Amino acid sequence: MRLKQLEVHGFKTFATRTQFSFREGITAIVGPNGCGKSNLADAIRWALGEQSPSNLRTKKTEDLIFTGSATRPKMGMAEVALTLENPFALEDDGRRATDDGQSPISNPSTTLGPSLQSPNGNEATEGTRRASIVEEILRARPSEVTLLRRAYRSGENEYLINRQRVRLRDVHELLQRWGLARLTYAVIGQGLVDQALSLRAEERRALFEEAAGIGLYQNKKANALEKLEETQQNLIRINDIINEIAPRLPSLARQADRASKYEAVSTALNEKLRAWYAFHWSHAQEGFIVAQSQEDAARETLTAQRAALHELGVRLTEARRAAQTLRAKLGDQRREQQQRENEFAAQERELAVLQERARFAETQHADAQRDLDAAVAAEQTARAALDEFNTPPLTLSADEPPAPAELESETPEQDAQQIAEYEVLQRREIEKLAAAAHTAEQELVARASAIQAANERVEQEWRAESLTPPPQRNETAFVPYSPPPRSPKRRPSFIVIQRCSTLG
Question: Do β-strands 18-21 and 3-9 pair in parallel, antiparallel, or remain unpaired?
């Protein structure tokens, strides 16, 4: 077995992780005083399971952890890992620790029941489990075995073998298999030779036995004797229990008979209860399936109703928006209708004015017609007088006075001119009145047609939008104005007959 590698981190003066590889041919570590040679020896001793602080040149375990310096803070953990060459890996693969393949370090324990277990029964079981870990490591026969030990400032220690957490006892057992027990003196410190020479015979014998590897078997012998003593104590306790129970055997037999009957009845009852529970469970399961199907159907119906409700909500929202739009249009149309009604009332008032003007024009036309008729009658009278004037003159009597000077001054040509001018003026006035009446009539008819067309358009819009019928409005009949028929135009002629005195 050879030490192959040493890794130190936080141990004494080694603040950083430091690794030492011991290749073949290296037999010593040399250096000046204070470089850490003794600390490396302490690290190896500590990794092998040393528990005495004095052997490690400290007072307590906390002193093994790096305490800090001017440039580095103190650390909370010390760690040392030893990588050793497995001596069993060099042997033949067919060889085992024992002929039956079992490791001699196995530590079987006998379980007598809860009432007969020793106080250290759990520890024995734990020891068996831990020993199996060591046995597995030995069976695997790895070429290298790494022992790692950690110490914290809280006082806790951790031990690992090939990254598996173990106890200190497991480490000692593994080292004993390799001949590296705690007292094998694999590490010899200063003064140990002088101390060995000064030992007594019994102490020197123990030293030789430990160096020869007999300590492993002595420990096993001590453990076996301890377990033998524990077994004897268990036997004594069992005998005491038997002696205590023997007088009660008949009563216990009766109780056992009752217990067996009770167990049979309980078994039958349990079977019947299981059947009863199975029946009710199957019935309840069927009811549950029916209820679940009803729930699914109700859930589908609810989903469909929710979808329909959502659709109705959407349609209601659209209908409300359409109704709001129609209300806005209705308000606009009502305002437009009100405006048209106002315009219609204004047109009615204007129509009344035009009708009044037409009546006035008709009255003037009638007056002009009467004047024209009077003028025609006067013309006829004048013609009759002219005809009478054209007859042979009569002889005036001496008694008749002479004609006035005005009559003498007037001539027939002047009378005819005046009559013609008057006739022209009357004709122009009549034509103006007739033109004004015709223009008023056309304007009135055009406005009435526009109002009627607007009303028809509004009614069509109301019918297209399916709204309520429009309010009734006052219908006004528009009667086109027609002037009374005029008599044929005749040129009136007014002749002033000059009454001449007839000389007798």
Answer: antiparallel
| Interacting residues of 193 by C-beta distance below 8 A, sequence separation 6+ | none
Per-residue 3-state assignment (H helix, E strand, C coil) for 107-147 = CCCCCCCCCCCCCCHHHHHHHHHHHHHHHHHHHHCCCEEEE
pLDDT at residue 440, as a whole number: 74
Tell me which residue has tokens 């979808």.
307
Helix %, strand %, coil % of the chain (to 5):
60, 10, 30
Residues with Cβ within 8 Å of residue 420, at least 6 apart in sequence: 493
In a domain, 397, yes or no: no
Q: What local confidence, expressed as pLDDT, does residue 233 receive?
A: 95
The first and second tokens of residue 464, run together, are 């297209």
**Residue of 41 and 504 predicted with greater confidence:** 41
- Strand locations in 414-487 (E): none
Half-sphere exposure of 390 (CA within 13 A, CB side): 5
| 132 within some domain | yes
Amino acid code (one letter) for 12: K
Q: Could you tell me if residue 487 is inside a domain?
A: no
Give the CATH number for residue 177. 3.40.50.300
pLDDT of residue 86: 81
Q: Identify whether the C-beta of residue 361 lies closer than 8 Å to the C-beta of residue 441.
A: no
Nearest to 171 by CA among 144, 135, 134: 134
pLDDT tens-place string over residues 113-157: 333 343 344 444 444 555 567 777 777 788 889 999 999 998 899
User: At a CB cut-off of 8 Å and minimum separation 6, what does 238 contact?
Assistant: 112, 116
Comparing 112-116, 223-227, 346-350, the range with the smallest average pLDDT is 112-116
State the DSSP code for 11: B
pTM of the complete model: 0.39
Q: Provide the domain limits for residue 92.
A: 3-182
Residue 270 lies in a domain: no
Q: Which residue has the tokens 């699914």?
A: 296
Residue 339: exposure state from Cβ atoms within 10 A (0-12, 13-18, ≥19): exposed
Q: How far apart are CA 107 and CA 224, in angstroms?
A: 9
Say how far apart CA 207 and CA 232 lie, in whole Å.
33
Number of domains in the chain: 1
Report the alpha-carbon angle 138-141-143, nearest 5. 130
Q: Which long-range contacts (CB under 8 A, 24 or more apart) does 440-447 make?
A: 440/354, 440/357, 440/358, 440/361, 440/481, 441/358, 441/480, 441/481, 441/482, 443/354, 444/351, 444/354, 444/355, 444/478, 444/480, 444/481, 445/478, 445/480, 447/347, 447/350, 447/351
Cα 169 to Cα 172: distance, rounded to the nearest angstrom:
5
DSSP classification of residue 19: E
